[in-house]
Amino acid sequence: MRRRADQIGQTRQRIVEAAVTLHGSVGPAATTIAAIADLAQVTRLTVYRHFPDQASLFGACSAHWMSGQRLPDPGAWAEISDPAARLRAGLADLYRFYRAGAAMLANVNRDFAALPEAQQQFLRDQDDIHRRVLAEPLSGTPRQRRRILAVTGHAASFWTWHSLCAEQGLQDQEAVEVMTGMILATAGMRDREPAT
User: Fold this and answer.
1) What is the mean pLDDT of residues 43-59?
2) How far lies 94's CA from each of 16, 116, 162, 164, 178, in Å?
């Protein structure tokens, strides 16, 4: 009985690892059940037996991939009261995460519309948390706050990091300084370079 349970667990793990590999190489939109089954060396029926729908498969795949990452920590950023220092710490944390997971994150963000609704909502919620924690110490009129949140959301976006660093060749810290300056200027604050 225990041996059977171990085999079932190992089969499930092979399926999840195959899905992670394919999501990281061809992306979620191009990943088929047939390709997952082939890579995991199981039948399509076995994949469906373990994961009856895309949402359950994608949830398991996402959880497995994230378990191997050092995730951003907005709780730690929230403990920093100085607006510029919080922006620098938070953006540096996000950009480190983006660089470490660049291939997977590019595919997932590119194929966003193909993701299950629950996963889309999870990613939108994460983006909103990042934006709000980073912008929280910045004050202004309602109009300024709307702009601050928009610019902060832009700075915290994977695609902003991708454009500045992966495509244009900035180092992560350079991109952090550029985006911090942009957000502070939007808030009407003067950017002071961090002490070295």
Assistant:
1) 94
2) 26, 24, 12, 14, 14
